[in-house]
Amino acid sequence: MNFFGGGNCQTRALQGEGKVFLTFDDGPNESFTPRLLEFCARNRIHATFFLVADRARRHPELTRALTAAGHTVGNHSLDHSYRHFFRRSKHLKRWIDEAQSELTALAGQAPFAFRSPNGIRTPHLRKALEKAGLPLVHWSTRFFDTIFPWTEAKAVRAATKARPGEIILLHDVPHRDPETFLRSLDSLVTGLRARGLEPAALRKENLGP
Question: Of 57, 82, 171, 185, whose CB is crowded by the most CB atoms within 10 A?
Fold first, then answer.
């Protein structure tokens, strides 16, 4: 969602030949994060989790488990509230900084980028992120999986179309049909690997110079 034009926003990785980057927003979640961790471990893949700080605070053990397993974390705001975007850049920077500080302490790893709730971009957000020294990272592929069921057919189509550097958005939330979600995730990973693309965690160095 681009309210007024928000400046630079990275939607693809510039570095990472042969890789596609899996990202999960809105966690951690006590019922679903452990299942994602198990899936990733079983399939020998790493991903990026864009965490909401007040949810991470409620689940510190899950937050630390993510980085302990080799996943990377991003800043997905303090509270996932949209009201902050109607404030000026000074307020937005405090909001972002507070989340950054909390997530760093909880995860034992500083989030390398910010992803705004619902993909909102505004000039004030751009200024706040410049002052915070954080890139804005969104996505090139999404499935609206918090609204519509994510199916194996959708996953297979996405794997067929994916190109190196793709940033894929999914959500670490209690899905209505978690079994179908995990089967679809398996189909996505299988389809990517069949095309020589390896799912990977996004890191600062993948964003380019």
Answer: 185
- The distance from CA 44 to its chain's CA centroid, rounded to whole angstroms, is 19
- Residues carrying an active site annotation: 25, 171
What is the C-alpha to C-alpha distance for residues 39 and 44, in angstroms, rounded to an integer?
Answer: 8
Residue type, 159: A
CA dist 209 and 58 (Å) reads: 35
**What is the CATH number for 72?**
3.20.20.370
Domain count, the chain: 1
Range of the domain at 115: 19-203
pLDDT digits (tens, 9 = 90+) for 47-82: 999 999 999 999 999 999 999 999 999 999 999 999
Residue 1 lies inside a defined structural domain of this protein = no
90 φ, ψ to 5°? -60, -45
